[in-house]
Amino acid sequence: MKHLLFSLIAGCISFSAAAQNTSYNKALADSLGADQYGMKMYQLVILKTGSNNIEDKEKVTELFRGHMANIGKLVKEGKLIVAGPLGKNDKQYRGIFIFSVKTTEEAEALLQSDPAISSKMLEAEIYPWYGSAALPKYLEFHSQIEQAKP
């Protein structure tokens, strides 16, 4: 019995040790707001065709310029970490954003700064999303691979 108990304790200790990440960087994890799994909550936004069908092409161009400028501003502020268009689909989904904010209310406030959304040319659905806290780190490399800006 003593031998079995010792084996069980030794097995638990070795399992516990095997589950630890030897390359863990506490300072980096803390700076990114990571939990013990290296994850954190974000707000995932699905942009879709809005209820305002604007026929004036110059107005549409102006709104999309403002949309792109707003994306750049939110990226610089560290609030927006992923943005991009979706391919054609039957749901009228146009693109996605991933905001590095904790609540849907914070995401809603950020969305109102986008002229394409405030004009109802685009509308947004917001979902809490649990993903890698390291996600913002890809932005450091994007400028090194981007030949042209949209």
Automatic annotation (TrEMBL):
InterPro entries referenced in this protein's UniProt entry, alphabetically: Dimeric_a/b-barrel, YCII
Domain YCII-related positions: 47-129
UniProt entry tagged with the keyword Signal: yes
Keywords, alphabetical: Signal
Keyword presence, NADP: no
Secretion signal span: 1-19
Assigned protein family: Belongs to the YciI family.
Protein name: YCII-related domain-containing protein
